[in-house]
Amino acid sequence: MFAVLDSIDAAIVRELQKDARLQNKDLAELVNVAPSTCVVRHRALRERGVITGYHAAVDLAAVGTPVQAMVAVRIRPHTRDIVEPFMNYVLSLPETLALSHVTGPEDFLVHVAVADVAHLQRLVLDRFTNRREVAEVHTNLLFSHIRKHG
């Protein structure tokens, strides 16, 4: 269901996307409403499922996984009985940052972060290509990955 946001709700969401750690009084000031109004609106956005969570942005190099890649995977057969378990498997891998089920020649794009290129090679060969349902894998190293906030 599509959530309709008025200008205040949209401003709250925009500011929290920039900095999810904003204190209510600071958020209220940024969106030009009273703190009591802001806390009610913020709670309502969570309850309506517009705001689904908060996360910490991590410097991947600082945690030992500076090499990122997009692994494009085609599976066969492309059926619900195969797709759902495959998605659960990929999401269970510690190297997986994000998973997208897509249209086109590939079925999935898997954003991964690893320690080095040798780790990436082991991941592709030991965790993807050895699976029965995987028909094809293409791996692209990322030179940089910039996430838009707000």
Structure description:
By secondary structure, the chain is an alpha+beta fold. It folds into 2 domains: 7-47, Winged helix-like DNA-binding domain superfamily/Winged helix DNA-binding domain (Arc Repressor Mutant, subunit A, Orthogonal Bundle), CATH 1.10.10; 67-142, Lrp/AsnC effector binding domain/regulation of amino acid metabolism (RAM) domain (Alpha-Beta Plaits, 2-Layer Sandwich), CATH 3.30.70.920. It has 5 helices and 4 strands, in the order H-H-H-E-H-E-E-H-E. A 4-stranded antiparallel beta sheet has the order 2-3-1-4. A hairpin with a 6-residue loop joins strand 2 (96-101) and strand 3. Residues 5-66 form the HTH asnC-type domain. One of its GO terms (cellular component) is cytosol. This is Lrp/AsnC family transcriptional regulator. Keywords: DNA-binding, Transcription, Transcription regulation.
Q: What's the alpha carbon Rg, rounded to whole Å?
A: 20 Å
Shape descriptor: elongated
CATH homologous superfamily designation of the largest domain: Lrp/AsnC effector binding domain/regulation of amino acid metabolism (RAM) domain
CATH topology of the largest domain, by name, is: Alpha-Beta Plaits
| Beta-strand residue fraction | 15-25%
SSE order, as H and E? HHHEHEEHE
The N- to C-terminal Cα distance equals: 22 Å
Largest sheet: 4 strands, antiparallel
**Overall tally of domains:** 2
Report the structural category. alpha+beta
Topology, number of strands: 4
Low-confidence stretches: none
Range of helix content: 25-40%
Any guess at the CATH architecture of the largest domain? 2-Layer Sandwich
Pfam families: AsnC_trans_reg, HTH_AsnC-type
InterPro entries: AsnC-type_HTH_dom (IPR000485), Dimeric_a/b-barrel (IPR011008), Tscrpt_reg_AsnC-like (IPR019888), Tscrpt_reg_AsnC/Lrp_C (IPR019887), WH-like_DNA-bd_sf (IPR036388), WH_DNA-bd_sf (IPR036390)
GO cellular component, one term: cytosol
Protein name: Lrp/AsnC family transcriptional regulator
